[in-house]
Every structure is written in C-alpha cells, then in structure tokens.
Specification:
With 538 residues, the protein is an alpha+beta fold. The chain is 46% helix and 14% strand. It has four domains: 4-77, Cytochrome b5-like heme/steroid binding domain (Flavocytochrome B2, Chain A, domain 1), CATH 3.10.120; 99-257, Butyryl-Coa Dehydrogenase, subunit A, domain 1 (Orthogonal Bundle), CATH 1.10.540.10; 263-373, Butyryl-CoA Dehydrogenase, subunit A, domain 2 (Beta Barrel); 384-534, Up-down Bundle (Butyryl-CoA Dehydrogenase, subunit A, domain 3). Strand 9 and strand 10 form a beta hairpin. The structure holds protoporphyrin IX containing FE. GO terms for molecular function: acyl-CoA dehydrogenase activity; flavin adenine dinucleotide binding.
C-alpha cells in the first residue's frame, strides 16, 4: 500500500465509473463497492473525489475501515501514509515471583498509557494511574491480545453473531497463542502444552494475567464470542485438571488446551439449575464394576454442541448433595446434543444434551464418588470470577461506545455530550463500573494470596455478591447505552451493534452461574458464617 496520490488526482475520480474517496489520508476506490454499500450508492457519489473523513466517521466504527481496507484502499495522499511503527521494546523477563511479592516490591510508578484514554473507558491502570497489581508483563500481554483481537476478531463479529458461529481457527489460535492454558486458574501448565504466551514467561503467569486475557477478549462486546472460545473451556476443564486422575489428565488435557478438542461443563438440568443438589441425571455402576451407565438430560450447556468431552454432574448415591459425583464423559454412543435458540450470547452453542445408557469407564470419575459437590463448589469461584470480569468489561464497552457516540451525534443543535441528562447517565454508568472493577481487583488479589481451599471458604460469599454487582452494573449500562444510541442501539449491525448485542446478552449473565437473587442471599449467609469463625460480635 505504498502508492501515493495528490489530492488533485483523486479529485478527477468522482463519477460512477471511477469513484474514489479519501478517509483519514487513505485513498479508497469505491467504484464497484458503491452498488453494495449498505448506506446507498448516491451518498458515496456525493463525496466522490473528496475527503470524506467527517461523514465516514459520523456513520461508521473503526472496525468497518479495518475490514474493508484490504479490499478497497489503493494508496495514500502524499505525506499522509502512517510512519512505520517503532520496534517494540523487549518484555523484561524478571525472576519468577508470586503476585504478593511482585506487588510489594513494585516501584510505585504508573505504566505507560494505553488505549483511547476516554475517562473510565478502560481500567485506570491503562490511563496513567498507579496500581499495585500490574507490571510490564501485564502491559505487554494487554497489547498482544488487543492487536490480535483488532485484526482477527473485531471486524467480523457482527457476521459471526448473525451466523451464530465463530471460525474454528480462532479457538485453535487461543490454544497456540497460549491463552487457553493460561485460563485455568492454576498458573501456566507448561508440562501439558508446547505453546506459551509470547509476552509472558510461563513462570511469571498469575491471576492478573488471566484477568487481562479475559478482559481484553471481552472488549469484543460479544458474550457469544467470549463464550464460544472460553465458555465451556473455562468451567469444564479446571475440575478435570484439579481433581482428575493423572492418566486421564495426560490423555485428554493437552488436546484441549492446544485448541484441538473442546470440553463443556454439564450441571444444569431441565429441572435443576442453581439448585444443584436436586439433580437427577443418574450414573449406576455396571455389574462388572468397570463402568458407570449414565442416563439423563442436561440443559443450557455452553459449547455442548461442539464438545468432545463433557464434565458432568451425576447422581451416584442417595438424594441431596452427598449423592452427587462428577464424571468426564466422552462423546460417543448414547450422547446426543441439540443446539438451543436463546435470546442472546449467539455463537456460544447453548445445548440440550441427552445421555442414554452411556458407558463411562470408572477411571473417568473426577474426584471421589459421592463427593462431587466439593468439585462443583470449588469450580464456582473460578467460573463466577470469569463472569464478573466479562460483565465488568461489557459494562465498560457500553459506556465507552455511548461516550464516543455522544460526541458524534447532535440533537437540538449540539452534541449529545453537551446535554446534562446524557452526562448524568454516563456518570451513573462510570461510578458503578469503577466500583465493581476495584472490588474485583481486590478479590483477585485475595485469591492470589490464599490457597484455593481457603479462598473457596472465605471468598465464596464475597464473590457471589460481586457477581450480582457485576451483572446489575452490566444491565444498567446496557440499558443506558441503548437509550443514548436511540434507534441505532435498537438496530443490529452498524455503529450501535455492540450495545444492541450486549443488551440481549445481559440475561445470559444474570441467570447462569448462580442467579442474582441466589448470589445476593449467599453473599450474606456465607459472609456471616465466615465471620462467625473469625470471631464476629453482634
Ligand atoms: C471506505 C468507504 C466505506 C465503506 C467500506 C462503508 C461501509 C459501510 C457499511 C459496512 C455499512 C453498514 C453499517 C455498518 O456495518 O456500520 C455502511 C453504512 C452506511 N454508510 Fe458507509 N461506507 C463507506 C463510506 C461511506 C461514506 C463516505 C459515507 C457518507 C458520505 C457513508 C455513509 C453511510 C451511511 C449513511 C450508512 C447507513 C448508516 C445507518 O444504517 O445508520 N459511507 N457503510
């Protein structure tokens, strides 16, 4: 794309049979594209031969330019081509440290600023504020994931959401770029994959790196995309890694974390959701004692439709929580999956599963027989933290998109941002996002400092409360952003596409993983229990 043109030359291409326009110094030949332009042919012809940057940005997002650049751009106006990017600084490979050690010895200096610097549009450590939680490796990872998302994912999201699909190469890349192995809440499992993350030494990997990956992929503003790539993985695999037998882990985990195979978590049933202790999918030992025979149904199972493996809660004993076990079921005879049609999170493959006389080797038991409840409960903290990270970023995306649009769109003779009622909406969004984010960082820090068992007991209540805080914040921000966008936020595709999509995704976050009502109640019940042990005086 090194060809350059003078403005006078572009000006001669203003007819239907040779139509060029300039956007941000780039020269685009839209002669053939004009007929298929969703905004119409005439509107392009009116700016033929001219600099159309202002009207272009009025009607489109950056991802449109990125997507069409390879097809339509023919060069640059003289002197306007962007300078080649400066070579990137090498990431410092510091000696391995725990988060606690890293933070206590960290110089109290802000990291370089990153992103669009819209106030509250990114977490404050992106915007020149000091934070005890992050160092250069987190910053390098943030840049690495964002570049990948902007190039490979963002321009195609509306298409994928419509088709309820994400190309399998993207999941594969999540494996080869080392993001999948880093998202298990167990550090970086180097022994199970040859792939590592380019910008972070595996020995330095901590929960805040995990946070950065999930946060940056959630900038997609698509629950369907995020759940497609990590929805089943992030909740289905950790129980296998933590409680599975060595032989099973070595046999199946490498294929999954390298992005070749898929796994999902199947707990919810048509008649048992947050009420896990009541599940009825049954697993009976065969007479030879070598197998469990599984019969039952599972519903709303993310990624189930493509899954090779199912981490399944089954009843092996009597009623209640002490009769529940967890089995790793492999796709095969007796396993049937059907995709469900839901309000949002399109592309995440929400599935109805039936197990009919499925033979499962006893070696596939995860944890101990009838002690599956512990496996499920241990998993909940990690699952809920994933949901909290995603919702907090989704709320931020709603805010960021609304703030940008409020500067473009004029009503009653002035930009929306100059109307106090719009600033009030943005302020209420920002204060909730920042509060949620700060609580989340604090909880992650506590998780890093405690062992998993202690974290499960002591933080379960707070994490439940934070999940409700994150989903209500997300719901509020999605609502307010759609109001600011007006009709454009009610329309699929185009500038309001992220907020329109997120508005439909809200319930997909507020209900599963523990509904808001159950989370709020649990936060108080569990908090009282823990503080009784700590010596609470009432
Ligand atoms: C490189 C040149 C351009 C490309 C690739 C392009 C592409 C698109 C696409 C894909 C859409 C569908 C909506 C979306 O997904 O955002 C759209 C809509 C639209 N475009 Fe363009 N466009 C270009 C230039 C322009 C220019 C220069 C103008 C105005 C002078 C314009 C005005 C519009 C309008 C009014 C809409 C409809 C917006 C709506 O539905 O609210 N486009 N364009």
């Amino acid at each position: 794309m090194s060809k350059t043109f003078k403005e006078a030359e572009v000006a001669t291409h203003k007819s239907a049979d040779s139509l060029w326009i300039i956007v941000d110094g780039g020269v685009y030949d839209v002669t053939k594209f004009a007929d298929e332009h969703p905004g119409g042919k005439k509107i392009l012809q009116r700016v033929g031969g001219k600099d159309a940057s202002t009207p272009f940005w009025k009607y489109h997002n950056a991802s449109i330019l990125k997507k069409y650049q390879p097809k339509l751009q023919i060069g640059w106006i003289e002197g306007k081509a962007p300078a080649a990017p400066a070579p990137k600084a090498e990431v410092k490979k510091a000696a391995p440290k725990t988060v606690a050690a890293t933070t206590s010895s960290q110089p109290k200096e802000a990291l370089e600023t990153f992103g669009d610097l819209i106030p509250y549009g990114d977490p404050n450590w992106y915007q020149g504020y000091v934070s005890p939680y992050y160092n250069e490796t987190h910053a390098a990872l943030r840049q690495e994931v964002r570049e990948w998302m902007e190039e490979k994912v963002e321009p195609y999201l509306s298409e994928w959401e419509k088709a309820k699909f994400v190309p399998t190469e993207i999941y594969k890349e999540m494996g080869t770029r080392g993001y999948l192995p880093g998202l298990l809440g167990v550090g970086f499992p180097e022994s199970l994959t040859p792939y590592t993350v380019k910008s972070v030494d595996p020995k330095q990997w901590d929960l805040f790196h995990e946070f950065v990956v999930t946060d940056e992929i959630s900038r997609s503003g698509s629950g369907g995309f995020v759940w497609n790539v990590i929805g089943g993985f992030g909740i289905g695999l950790p129980p296998v890694v933590k409680f599975g037998k060595k032989e099973l882990v070595e046999r199946i985990v490498p294929g999954i974390i390298q992005g070749d195979k898929r796994i999902c978590l199947a707990i919810t049933e048509p008649d048992a959701g947050s009420d896990v202790a009541n599940l009825t999918c049954v697993a009976k030992k065969s007479e030879c004692g070598k197998f469990y025979i599984v019969n039952g149904e599972k519903k709303w199972i993310t990624n189930g439709i493509w899954a090779d493996y199912f981490t399944v809660a089954v009843r092996t004993g009597g009623p209640g929580m002490n009769g529940v076990s967890v089995l790793l079921i492999e796709r095969g005879p007796g396993v049937t999956t059907r995709e469900m049609d839901c309000q949002g999170v399109h592309g995440s493959g929400t599935t109805y599963i039936t197990f009919e006389d499925v033979k499962v080797p006893v070696e596939n038991l995860i944890g101990k027989e009838n002690a599956g409840f512990k496996v499920i409960m241990t998993n909940f903290n990690h699952e809920r933290i994933g949901i909290i990270i995603q919702c907090t970023r989704f709320a931020r995306v709603c805010y960021e998109e609304a703030m940008k649009y409020a500067h473009k769109r004029k009503t009653f003779g002035k930009p929306l941002i100059e109307h106090p009622v719009i600033r009030l909406k943005l302020a209420h969004m920002a204060r909730q996002i920042e509060a949620t984010h700060a609580w989340l960082e604090n909880i992650l820090y506590q998780c890093s400092a405690m062992g998993e068992h202690e974290a499960m007991l002591r933080l379960g209540g707070a994490i439940a409360g934070l999940k409700a805080q994150a989903t209500t914040t997300f719901e509020f921000c999605a609502r307010e952003a759609v109001q600011i966008f007006g009709g454009i936020g009610y329309t699929k595709g185009g500038q309001g596409s992220k907020v329109e999509r997120l508005y439909r995704d809200v319930r997909g976050y507020a209900i599963p993983g523990g509904s808001e009502e159950i989370m709020l109640d649990l936060s108080i019940r569990q908090g009282l229990r823990v503080h009784q042990v700590l010596g609470m005086k009432l």
